[in-house]
Please model this.
Amino acid sequence: MLILSGINGISGALEVADRIKECIRNYVFEKKELRVTISIGLACYQGESIKELIGIAVNCYIRPRETAVTE
Model:
C-alpha cells in the first residue's frame, strides 16, 4: 500500500500511477527474463474514514484483476 499526499486530485494520482506502472513495465531484471505487471487501486479522500478509503482503493484494485482473469 502506498499513500500519497499533496497530489492534485484523482488526475494527479492517475499520472503518478501511470509513471509507476511504466517504471515497473520497463524494469530489466538481471539474469532473468521476467515480465512484471501491476494493478493499482486509487481512491481520493473525500471525508470518509480511513477504513472506507482503503476499501474503495481495494475495490478499484480488485475489479481490473477479476476482469483480466475472466478474459
About this structure: The chain has two helices and no strands. The mean pLDDT is 78.
